[in-house]
Design brief:
Layout: H1 2-14, H2 30-54, H3 59-71, H4 87-109, H5 120-134, H6 140-159, H7 165-172, E1 215-220, H8 247-250, H9 270-283, E2 289-292, H10 306-323, E3 329-331, H11 356-366, H12 374-381, E4 384-389, E5 392-396, H13 408-411, H14 417-432, E6 436-440, H15 452-464, E7 469-474, E8 480-486, E9 492-499, E10 511-517, E11 524-531, H16 534-540, E12 549-553, H17 554-557, H18 564-576, H19 578-588, H20 593-598, H21 602-612, H22 621-637
């Protein structure tokens, strides 16, 4: 087993204990695993420091790096989300993160080290590129592109904060054994006026009903347009994004990129994006509002720039405006909109590392449908509120404040309190005005890449304003899914709806959603997902447009009660009936051919039910209850 190899490596490389202690690591103790990771990281860091000082690769250095490199599965760490990695890959990422962050932080803060001199940037790049290639984390092109784009901000953060390697990696990697340290300097609580609020003693069950006057809301998310996509180019490559080049290597083979897109690590060509928008315009002339929940930019993460991001974003959004000239469009920011990727600075950061350029650019485009008062908060941090019509308020968050790849979290985590306090004040005003609110945010609050402190406080706001918030809408995961928000007592109080993704990256049919929204309470009373089958579309090729079809209507497949209480009841039904849960999973995966061929095994089913019930990463009580029921149901089905 691979775990045996990695455990043997841990103890032989670090001399932590005798080999007789190996079996202890099979106990589910995160502290033990974290200590083992720390021990190995310290060894790697120490050996790397010796290598930098002497230029000599010791046998221990070569052994540790070779074993680490050979231990994990495949090169492309940037294709898989952290929460999708296998255990051995989690261990690899934790060790390498702690070690290399430690090397850069230690050497940079040492006043006698070259990193503080005129050669500092060159030395830092040498360290990063050497580690990236030595451990085969990515290709040289990708390693250099990521370093060149991100280093100036990382250098500023290292110079101006005392954050250590373990803290950095605990933010960046939130799976449990790499996140066992407390962070007293990275914690906060919102001061809420909730002392006189009644106790919550039941799930929110007030239920909207379909009416002839229901609003129709189009949800587009994760469009990820790739301007360099070339049909017939190489769809299998070592970089995080393919389907751009090496056409001569792919011609006549199964590795050639399809005309309308590709199931592999590829984003959408312009003709697919444009055809999707055109189809929607023709099929849904009755759309009242459009939600666009982020990530217009492609996954070419090592080659972003302000100029490129602006061109791609403007082309996509202006096409939506052209096709829907009279339909209000309410967007929010995805992590891919930024350059460098994922990084969103606090407002007070120096101009050289500030995100002002992005907010100014976005406001110029967004202002078509935003009130004048939104300008202040968009320019401050990329968030806003707008009254869509009397009684109906939109709140759009830039919740990259919670995104653990946003390194500004390391700088000062309490900065992330500012937007949440604005959200509190905005919800309080909406409550007093008897308004109903839809919240847009890119990253689901329960996602493994959303910082637990932020999501904990966000969920406090959701509970406090459960009667005001009628719906929450996310993207980011590329999955057609939902999440139920619970109180500490286990009562369901809100629902987050996720619109899936227009892009095909990785292994998805393109999709969009239409919500039917009751016009008085603004509750979602039904929704439908539309897709086209990419295999069939590429078989027909350029001669025929993709055949979009309605994949499913939620009320017809699951329940017509979309209240939090109704959907919590559905989760129980899924836990007791694995076939119902498997059907949900098929729709979550957008009926994609490769996904359906692979199927959803026991582990997949448990993760599926759990993800539905988690909106704070480390609060999993309802998840565990549902998993226990599902395990019992699956076991009984095999008897």
């Amino acid at each position: 087993m691979l775990w045996v190899s990695i455990i043997f490596l841990i103890f032989t490389a670090t001399n932590a204990v005798e080999l007789s202690g190996i079996l202890k690591l099979f106990t589910p103790n995160d502290v033990i695993l974290s200590a083992a990771a720390d021990n190995m990281a310290n060894k790697l860091e120490s050996e790397y420091m010796k290598y930098l000082e002497t230029g000599v690769e010791t046998p221990t250095f070569n052994y540790v790096t070779m074993q680490l490199e050979s231990s994990r599965n495949g090169m492309n760490k940037y294709v898989k989300d952290i929460h999708k990695l296998k255990p051995v890959d989690e261990f690899f990422v934790c060790v390498v993160c702690r070690a290399m962050a430690g090397v850069i932080v230690r050497t940079f803060r040492d006043e006698q080290n070259d990193l503080n001199g005129p050669k500092g940037d060159a030395v830092a790049k040498k360290i990063a590129i050497d580690a990236c290639q030595r451990l085969k984390i990515q290709t040289k092109e990708v390693c250099e592109g990521l370093f060149d784009g991100h280093w100036p901000i990382l250098r500023y953060i290292i110079e101006n904060t005392s954050v250590d390697a373990k803290t950095i990696c605990s933010f960046y990697i939130q799976f449990t054994f790499c996140n066992v340290a407390d962070h007293p300097n990275f914690n906060f609580n919102l001061e809420l006026d909730d002392a006189d609020q009644p106790s919550i003693i039941a799930s929110k069950s007030n239920r909207g009903r379909r009416t002839p006057n229901d609003l129709n809301i189009l949800h587009l998310t994760d469009i990820h347009h790739d301007p360099l996509y070339e049909p017939g180019s190489l769809a299998e490559c070592d970089e995080p994004l393919c389907c751009q080049r090496h056409k001569s290597l792919a011609v006549g083979t199964s590795k050639a990129a399809g005309y309308w897109g590709d199931y592999r690590e590829c984003d959408l060509p312009w003709h697919t994006v444009n055809q999707a928008f055109t189809h929607i315009r023709q099929a849904h002339a009755d759309v009242d509002y459009i939600f666009q929940t982020g990530d217009v930019i492609d996954h070419m993460i090592w080659s972003t720039s302000m100029a490129k991001n602006k061109v791609v974003y403007e082309r996509v959004v202006k096409r939506i405006y052209e096709l829907f000239p009279d339909v209000p469009v309410y967007p929010c920011i995805g992590n891919h909109e930024a350059h460098p990727l994922n990084l969103f600075s606090p407002a007070y950061a120096p101009d050289s590392v500030n995100s002002h350029w992005l907010y100014e650019f976005l406001y110029d485009i967004w202002s078509k449908w935003l009130p004048a008062g939104a300008k202040e908060t968009v320019l401050r941090g990329g968030y806003y509120t707008a009254l869509a019509r009397p009684g109906y308020r939109i709140i759009s968050l830039n919740n990259n404040d919670c995104y653990t790849d946003n390194w500004w979290l390391f700088y000062n985590g309490t900065d992330m309190k500012t937007q949440l306090m604005w959200l509190y004040e905005t919800l309080l005003a909406a409550e007093r005005a008897n308004e109903h609110v839809h919240i847009l945010a890119h990253v689901p609050s329960g996602d493994d890449t959303c910082w637990n402190v932020w999501s904990r406080e966000f969920n406090r706001l959701v509970r406090r304003f459960r009667e005001t918030i009628s719906g929450i809408f996310n993207g980011h995961s590329h999955a057609d899914e939902m999440h139920i928000h619970y109180t500490n007592g286990g009562y369901a109080v809100a629902v987050t709806f996720n619109g899936g993704a227009l892009t095909t990256w990785t292994y998805k049919n393109p999709n969009y959603r239409i919500y039917r929204v009751e016009p008085e309470t603004l509750q979602v009373v039904d929704h439908e997902t539309w897709i086209f089958n990419l295999t069939a579309a590429n078989t027909a090729g350029a001669a025929e447009n993709p055949r979009w079809f309605k994949e499913y209507i939620f009320s017809e497949e699951f329940t017509d009660d979309l209240s939090p209480a109704g959907l919590d009841k559905l989760l129980e039904q899924m836990a007791d009936n694995p076939r119902l849960l498997e059907k949900f999973w098929r729709f979550k995966m957008l009926s994609t051919d490769p996904r359906l061929r692979k199927g959803c095994n026991r582990s997949c089913m448990l993760k599926t039910i759990c993800r539905l019930a988690v909106t704070v990463n480390d609060q999993r009580k309802r998840c565990e209850e549902l998993k226990a029921r599902l395990i019992k149901a699956m076991d009984s089905s095999y008897e």
